[in-house]
Design a protein that fits this description.
The protein has helices spanning about 10-30, 45-65, 70-90, 95-115, 120-125, 135-160, 165-185, 185-195, 195-205; strands spanning about 35, 40. It has about 200 residues and is mainly alpha-helical. The protein has two domains: about 1-90; about 95-205, no CATH class. It has a two-stranded antiparallel ribbon. The longest helix has 28 residues, at about 135-160.
Length: about 200
């Protein structure tokens, strides 16, 4: 089934909405303890419990609107359900804090496995947005593997050594900013190995 186009604003709301809700909920609830069904939960765990159904709903809505979900989005949703669910079930925020580490290690492992086979699997996700020659994709994939490994280490350091407030800020703003800056820093690579869309269209004919 062909992918349907949606407004960039709608997609941005679906992608970032659950995370923003988590950030706001945490900051409003972080200093309290909340009794639910006879068990006391911290504001962190309550915010996590709100985040899980929101990201599941946003992913389903995105699929309903576009008929397409990337492998990364599926992996992220599954890990949120597992690690977020464990945090709520066991009343321990540690599992949710570990989720970014597992996600980045998973992505690095998958991309690294592709590199060993001479394939740039990152191209399957980003080629439509950034048309580029195979050599360029191989270089970019290697750099992304390094980035994901560095982010996994950074997340471990932050959640293990700093406060919940700092970790939530890091997850909500720090990680996205690092990814954006990293992609912007690859401009020369895109220019060196880029392929004009018109050329790509002609090649498909």
């Amino acid at each position: 089934m062909a992918e349907k186009k949606i407004s960039p604003w709608v997609k941005a709301a679906l992608d970032w909405g659950p995370l923003i809700v988590f950030f706001v909920a945490f900051n409003r609830l972080k200093d309290g303890t909340y009794a639910i069904l006879g068990t006391d939960y911290s504001g962190f765990v309550v915010a996590t419990a709100l985040f899980i159904p929101l990201i599941a709903a946003s992913t389903l809505i995105l699929w309903a609107l576009t008929r397409k979900i990337s492998a990364m989005q599926i992996a992220t949703l599954v890990l949120v359900l597992i690690f977020g669910g464990l945090s709520v079930w066991l009343n321990d925020p540690t599992f949710f804090k570990m989720k970014p580490t597992i996600i980045y290690l998973l992505f690095a492992g998958i991309l690294g496995a592709g590199l060993i086979r001479g394939k740039a699997w990152l191209q399957l996700v980003m080629n439509e947005a950034i048309p580029m020659a195979h050599e360029g994709w191989m270089i970019l994939t290697k750099r992304f593997v390094g980035l994901f490994l560095a982010l996994a280490v950074a997340n471990e350091i932050v959640w293990r050594t700093m406060s919940d407030e700092i970790w939530v800020d890091f997850k909500t703003f720090g990680l996205p900013i690092i990814l954006i800056v990293f992609i912007m820093s690859q401009t020369k690579l895109f220019e060196r190995h880029g392929i004009e869309k018109e050329e790509g269209d002609e090649a498909e004919k």
